Amino acid sequence: MLDRRESTDGIVYYVSPLLERLGVRHAFSTRAGGVSPPPFDTMNLGIAGDAAVRDSLENVEENYRRLRAALGCADRGRCWIKQVHGADVATVRPGSAFENGACADALVSDDPDRVLSVKYADCVPILLANRDGSAVAAVHAGWRGLVAGMIPAAVRELERVAGQRATEFVAAVGPCIGVAHFEVGPEVVAAFRARMGDGAPVRRGRGGDKGYVDLRRATLAELRAAGVAEERIDTADLCTFANPAEFFSHRRDAGVTGRMAALIVPRGEVAKR
Questions:
Q1: CB–CB of 124/146 below 8 Å?
Q2: Packing angle between helix 150-162 and helix 215-225, nearest 10 degrees?
């Protein structure tokens, strides 16, 4: 299970007990504690490129600053990617420059001076760490990313950077849209069955060839298949669609909505500034 936290200035976020035991700073944000006005009230952490109604970049950056401050890492640079629902991984190494905005859906790093972040509003956010928290990953996985192999791609890169096997990793799966609210067309059902076979977490829909896909169950299955042990995975039954007071939801709000973010920081000695 994930634990709920609230800072003294009203920022609400969720954390993984498994990651906390490693001393890894991280958060799955909610919509509480920021400065953005409606319909992005208040902790909006993203601006959709095709949105007709937009929050300001200044509000978003201030919200990120507040969330990083709640985690005790406001002075560390934030690394972010342009998420494209694929299976590419960007890697951030100590002493190497990193250009924000690369097209990818996961970040892997062993640089304690950097904060990794991915945003979400129904898709699945996943945070990973090696056995001592010195190498971590932040992953964004919607249905397209799941069937494209986003999770095993991120796990393999974390194995390379950490020099460890996935059996030693810890994973945390954050809030996402629940199965009761994620009805999809036959092409999505077919994609999950093609990847996961008879074990695909799909229920029959209301008619025709539609179905309901359980993104959380699919994520857990992909993590286990990639080598992460079930007892080393934290998750929670937190549906973004069904909890409008706490979470943004792209589907519920017909695209006019904000974004949450998952943040994680590798453990280690921070460079002197």
A1: yes
A2: 40
Beta strands in the chain (DSSP E): 3-6, 12-15, 25-29, 77-79, 89-92, 106-109, 114-120, 124-129, 136-141, 170-173, 183-184, 202-204, 211-213, 233-234, 260-265
pLDDT at 272: 55
Amino acid 270: pLDDT: 75
For residue 42, is the peptide bond before it cis, meaning its omega torsion is within 30 degrees of 0? yes
**Beta bridge partner(s), residue 168:** none
The DSSP call for residue 186 is: H
DSSP assigned state of 131? T
Q: What is the pLDDT of residue 271?
A: 67
Residue whose token pair is 């549906």: 239
- Identify the CATH number of the domain defined by range 3-142+171-176+235-265: 3.60.140.10
What element of type H or E holds 16?
none
**Residue, of 265 and 207, whose pLDDT is higher:** 265
Q: What's the average model confidence in pLDDT over 109-138?
A: 98
